[in-house]
């Protein structure tokens, strides 16, 4: 029966090698199949032409190859592409391709929906939630790499985990996906071109530091004052800023990697000098960069982008304090593909 077959891509290379040995075959066969599954993204056992027919048949009887399907692709007037990605169980996530003059960035999802409850984010309103498997994360990247080659004549250059979900709430699977993305048997991308964005789960930031991961870290801060942050990101009451900051200090002491903060300035919420001063104080312990992200309205106008002068105040104060700051314009807004807009709308 279909349902009893195991997902072959849930096996590590070692497990696959062991499986072939247990079948009286050579361990090396495991490497061959592994390469078909990951580097060549084979969708069927039949496609594995250097594997004997009997072996392919045997694999067919024991396993399935689950694959994502890009159900719908929307293109924005600025070149941004949004994929609605259907998973093997029918659930849908979104991923985005963001082109610039020199690079193509894939923004991928790590969960269906999100377990956090940021009040300004459309994804937080989705009910259904499950973690994505490593292969489901990997496949989103492959799909965008293919689109980049097709539409922009170049391979994918960067990956950000800024789609749906909180990557540190699905840590093991995200890490396994990154391993495949960076390994020569997968896409062979440099980890330096990958950024994991988190709302800040202190325990997991420490874990990443201990494991000396090589990718970059971005933290969605939005406020460095507990009271304010809790009012817009309620989980902050469980992981208060003091714990986050200590974890980041630990991360920096281990990795010596600059930390990027994502930050939206909203009218009447964090557009004051006091808010900027708190931010400066929060970041001071390590080389930092603050990305001031444009707010993408998600509905009723409860949140409003702050004025130009407030953004300028942030920029000036941060720069004066030696903190790198960039003002990021939204991409893909017309197709609901911008930060915080991913909600499976269509
Ligand atoms: N859970 C992770 C990654 C997903 S969100 C995280 O929180 O980092 C990606 C980024 O978009 C985060 O910085 C998030 O705070 C921001 N974001 C969410 N909703 C937004 C909105 N409506 N407008 C602009 N940025 C938003």
Structure description:
With 346 residues, the chain is of the alpha/beta class. Helices cover 34% and strands 18% of the residues. It contains ten helices and 14 strands. The strands form three sheets. A ten-stranded mixed beta sheet has the order 3-4-5-6-9-10-11-12-13-14, covered by helices on one side. A two-stranded parallel ribbon has the order 1-2. Helix 4 (134-152) crosses helix 5 (171-182) and helix 6 (202-210) runs parallel beside helix 8. The longest helix has 19 residues, at 134-152. The protein is elongated. It starts with 5 loop residues before the first strand and ends in an 18-residue tail after the last strand. The protein binds S-adenosyl-L-homocysteine. S-adenosyl-L-homocysteine binds at residues 118, 120-121, 162, 166, 197-199, 220, 262, 264, 293, 295-296, 298, 339-340.
Which features characterize this protein?
single chain; 346 residues; alpha/beta; 10-stranded mixed β-sheet; two-stranded parallel ribbon; 14 strands; elongated; binds S-adenosyl-L-homocysteine
């Amino acid at each position: 029966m279909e349902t009893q077959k195991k997902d072959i891509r849930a096996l590590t290379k070692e497990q696959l090698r062991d499986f072939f040995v247990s079948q009286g075959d050579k361990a090396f066969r495991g490497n061959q199949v592994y390469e078909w599954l990951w580097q060549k993204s084979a969708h069927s056992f039949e496609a594995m032409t250097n594997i004997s027919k009997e072996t392919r048949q045997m694999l067919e009887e024991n396993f399935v190859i689950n694959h994502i399907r890009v159900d719908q692709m929307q293109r924005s007037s600025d070149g941004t592409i949004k994929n609605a990605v259907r998973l093997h169980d029918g659930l849908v996530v979104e991923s985005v391709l963001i082109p610039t003059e020199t690079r193509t960035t894939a923004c991928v999802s790590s969960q269906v929906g999100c377990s956090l409850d940021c009040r300004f984010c459309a994804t937080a309103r989705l009910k259904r939630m499950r973690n994505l498997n490593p292969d489901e994360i990997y496949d989103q990247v492959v799909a965008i790499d293919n689109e980049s080659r097709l539409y922009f004549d170049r391979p994918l250059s960067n990956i950000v985990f800024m789609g749906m979900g909180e990557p540190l709430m699905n840590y093991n699977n995200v890490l396994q996906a990154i391993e495949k993305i960076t390994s020569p048997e997968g896409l062979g991308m440099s980890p330096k071109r990958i950024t994991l964005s988190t709302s800040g789960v202190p325990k997991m930031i420490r874990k990443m530091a201990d494991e000396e991961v090589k990718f970059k870290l971005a933290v969605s801060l939005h406020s460095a004052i507990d009271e304010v942050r809790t009012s817009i990101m309620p989980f902050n009451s469980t992981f208060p800023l003091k714990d986050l900051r200590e974890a980041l200090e630990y991360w920096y002491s281990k990795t010596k990697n600059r930390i990027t903060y994502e930050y939206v300035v909203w009218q009447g919420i964090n557009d004051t000098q006091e808010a900027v001063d708190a931010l400066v104080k929060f970041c001071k312990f390590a080389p930092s960069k603050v990305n001031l992200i444009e707010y993408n309205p998600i509905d009723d106008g409860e949140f409003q982008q702050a004025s130009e002068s407030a953004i300028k105040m942030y920029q000036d104060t941060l720069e004066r304090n030696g903190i790198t700051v960039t003002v990021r314009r939204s991409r893909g807004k017309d197709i609901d593909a911008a930060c915080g807009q991913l909600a499976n709308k269509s």
